[in-house]
Structure formats: C-alpha cells, structure tokens
Write a structure and sequence with these properties.
With 352 residues, this protein is α/β, with parallel strands linked by helices. The protein has ten helices and 15 strands. The N and C termini lie far apart (52 Å).
Length: 352
C-alpha cells in the first residue's frame, strides 16, 4: 500500500489517544487492578504488535510440531472471523464459519497427530475447558494472544515482520500497531519473520538493536524466513503448474504474490479481504473462462475455505495451493536450544 504522509500526520493525534488507552489498560494489568487468570497447563503465546500478516500461523505450526514430539500439546485460538461464539472443539464437521479459517487449518494439519484445536474468545475459560476435555494436555499454544492479557502465559513470543517492523510503526489508525511499541517489553523472545534470506551479521545486529530498544537487552531475537513448498492440488496431489490465476484473502499477500510471479506465468490476480468467507459464487467466478491449462492458485488458509466449494462444483482439480513453513536458517539450532531450555525449565517447575 502506498504511503500517504499527509494522512498519517492527520491521523497521528488519534493514534496518540489510542496508544494512551492501551497503555492505561496494560498498566492496570501490570498493577493487578485487572486480573489475569492462571491456567492449569503451561501456556505459550504467539502474537504480535501489528494488525495481521506477521506469520503467526506457520510459527504456531512449527512450535506445535516441535512440542508434539515429546509433549501433549493443544492449540487454543480466538477463532477470528467465525460466526459462532463460545468454546468449540474442532472436529471433522468444523468449518471456517464455525471455528475460523486458521483454527480449521490447524485442525486439518494436526488431527492425525492428535493435537486438539479449540476456539474461545475467553482464553482463560477456554484453557480450563480444554484441560477438562483433554486432561493429558501439558502445553497450550495460544494463537494471536499477545494483547489478550486475561490469561497468564509462561512464555510470550512476539513476532516482528522484517518488511514492516513494529519499531517503525504507529498505533492505529495512523499505523498498524495494536498498542504502543513499549508493549514489546512483555516478550520473552522476538522472532523476525519473513526475512528475504538468511540475514548477514550486520543486518542482524542492526535489527536486534532496534528491537531490544523496546524489549530490553536480555530478550533474544531470532530470524526466520517463509519457505514455500511445491504446489498441491485441492485433490491432495502434487501438481506441476505453468499458468495460474492467483486468489488470496490474507492480510499481506505481497510476499505470496512475489513468490508466484517469480515462478509461474500469472494470468490474473484476484484479492479478497483477510479472513474472507468465500461464497459459492466466488468459486464459480474464479474458474469462469479458465482455460484447461490454468489453475487457480491460493494460499493454504484460502484453501481450507475454498476447497468445499470447489468440490461441490466438481472442480477441485482446477485449484491448487502452496503450503508454507517457517525456516530459522542459521538460527535453527540457537532457537531450538533456547526454546528447549525454556520448556524443560517450565516442565520441571510444573512437576514440583
């Protein structure tokens, strides 16, 4: 989106007020005047200061995979964009409308690994209900919960988009921050996401210094990039693509589009709002006039919503998606060591 300095300047007073309100709220929690409830399980929060698009979903999946090897892990999300309320446990009948697109993606990816996925606006109540239904759960991953202070967390992981760093942004509405930059001081670690490559030491030092201005010098900063896998058709089979029509409804589709533009012949791009609830007419329109050698190519988050519609039309084979994962590159071992040590310490404390 093109910068409009005049608009940012005009909105800055409102951002100051918004930031002040969030500062007061945080101070009330810090002083115990607003209550945070302690869960009966280890709680790890993955979140950000920025509105949307920092890569929370692949990081949450990365941590779930890492933890699930040795611990009973579950994922608790608010279920943004769903048309239901209250606590829901994901199952085979769940849809994006009932639990939200990201929780549905988590469920479809982890159901074979027996990782429960639940949604609840009240994370503390949701964690209690989750522990009741799945008493074997040892660790709960909170998806997008950095500002949800109603539940205490044992580890706060803050994500920072390499391309849109929080330390250069302003609170809403002049910027994209959910609270002032000073909120970063609650982080136990920061992961810089969406790096274009494995940053060299000079870039790491520069960014780390800017991040630690708000987090403090003792908070580790890790660097990661988004890794795109080979395309998969909605039928579940690997597919070779040449001509594609991009369809995306995510917060920041630019990195996805850049990747596709560099590898395939893009004939058209159709962009939807983040968390868009697709309708049958949308799926029909996407394949309308599509030649036999052209696929509609989407993100994985879009796939979980579009796939049922494509199957109803009998055209799932005309759609494909690109799975994504997070790759820590040269920070892989350093992050694993830090994260493993923190988990071990938390588990030892919990067993006492």
């Amino acid at each position: 989106m093109k910068e409009r300095p005049w608009l940012k300047a005009a909105l800055s007073p409102f951002s100051w007020v918004y930031g002040l309100v969030t500062d007061v709220r945080n101070a009330l929690y810090d002083q115990g005047l607003l209550h945070s409830r302690k869960a009966s399980r280890i709680v790890i929060s993955i979140g950000n200061l920025t509105v949307g698009g920092t890569g929370k979903t692949p990081v949450t999946e990365y941590l779930a995979n890492k933890l699930n090897a040795n611990s009973a892990v579950a994922i608790l999300s608010r279920g943004y964009g769903r048309k239901t309320k209250g606590f829901l446990l994901a199952d085979d009948l769940s849809t994006a409308e009932t639990i939200g697109d990201e929780p549905l993606q988590f469920y479809q990816k982890f159901k074979k690994n027996a990782v429960p996925v639940v949604v609840s606006e009240d994370r503390a109540a949701g964690a209690a209900k989750l522990a009741e239904l799945h008493p074997e759960t040892q660790i709960i991953l909170l998806d997008d919960a950095f500002q949800h202070r109603g539940i205490k967390r044992d580890m706060n992981i803050l994500l920072n988009d390499f391309n849109r760093p929080f330390y250069e942004d302003l609170p809403f509405p002049a910027g994209r921050l959910r609270e002032n930059r000073s909120g970063a001081k609650r982080a136990d670690a920061v992961i810089v996401t969406k790096c274009p490559s494995d940053p060299d030491q000079s870039v790491r030092t520069l960014i780390t210094g800017k991040v630690q201005r708000y987090t403090g010098k003792n908070v580790p900063v890790f660097f990661s990039k988004t890794e795109y896998a080979e395309p998969v058709s909605y039928d579940g089979m690997p597919v070779k693509l040449k001509n594609v029509k991009i369809a995306a409804g995510i917060a920041d589709p630019r990195p996805f589009i850049r990747y596709i533009d560099a590898r395939f012949n893009v004939l058209d791009k159709v962009l939807f709002p983040d968390h868009y609830n697709y309708k049958p007419a949308d799926a029909e329109e996407l394949i309308k006039y599509l030649k036999s050698d052209t696929f509609v190519l989407t993100t994985e988050k879009d796939m979980v919503k579009l796939k049922p519609l494509a199957e109803e039309l009998g055209h799932a084979g005309r759609f494909a998606y690109i799975p994504v994962t997070v790759n820590f590159g040269s920070d892989t071992d350093r992050f694993a060591e830090w994260f493993g040590a923190r988990i071990e310490a938390l588990q030892n404390t919990a067993e006492r």
